[in-house]
Amino acid sequence: MRGTTVEHLLLPGDVVRAAVAVSVVVGGATFGGPAAALFLLVLGGALVPRLLGLRTVLDVCFGSCLLLAAWAALLRWYEAVSWLDLLVHAVCTGLVAAVGVLALVRSRVVAPWASGWRRAGLIVTTTAVGALGAVLWELGEWAGYTYVDDEIRVGYADTIGDLAFGLLGALAAGVVIAVWRPAQDSDDAR
């Protein structure tokens, strides 16, 4: 494969993105236009790790979690398994927070850890990005319920629970990133 770079190879995350693309068609044909729109949103999100060149494990976990969350909603798994909604909010929000912080670092909106970030600052920033993601997710659920499909489950208790578990997931992601990041921070190396 002379002259081929990693960017041109099919990566495991691309398999997940292909599954999302198939879901746009299958979900749309089975459940209608709102389902197709949901999977198009998931596809847009699943493209972010590829565009940022993030590590394969994060790429696959991120896209798979978004895909699972969408199918679980359409197939009413959240109604069948009472704790699944909170688990998905925690895991997906944590992954959104991780990808979001890495996107901010790569685009130089925030300073990378190699520039002197302390672990606590990284945890707080990741948690804040996740909190924003959780709020936007809940606004999306409300908008979906209000304007698209009144079967989307919303309500005070659901929203507060989703936000709480999303925040916990974002905090956990911040801790993981702070612990696993490269030991390039000269303040931490002392």
Structural topology:
Blueprint lengths: L11 H20 L1 H20 L3 H19 L2 H4 L3 H23 L12 H30 L7 H25 L5 H4 L1
Helix pairs in contact: 1-2, 1-3, 2-3, 3-5, 5-6, 5-7, 6-7
Q: What tags apply to this protein structure?
A:
2 domains; mainly alpha; membrane; 190 residues
Low-pLDDT residue intervals, each spanning 5 or more residues:
183-190
- Judged by helices, strands and strand pairing, the structural class is mainly alpha
Strand content: under 5%
The count of helical stretches stands at 8
Shape: globular
What is the overall pLDDT average? 87
Percentage of helical residues?
over 70%
Q: What summary fits the major beta sheet?
A: none
InterPro entries: YjdF-like
Keywords: Membrane, Transmembrane, Transmembrane helix
Transmembrane segments: 20-44, 56-74, 86-105, 117-140, 160-180
Tell me what the structure shows:
This protein is globular. Residues 183-190 have low confidence and may be disordered. Helices cover 76% and strands 0% of the residues. The protein has two domains: 1-70; 76-190, no CATH class. It is mainly alpha-helical and 190 residues long. It is built from eight helices and no strands. α5 (84-106) packs across α7 and α6 runs antiparallel to α7.
Compact overview of the structure:
The protein has 190 residues and is an all-alpha fold. The chain is built from 8 helices and no strands. It folds into 2 domains: 1-70; 76-190, no CATH class.
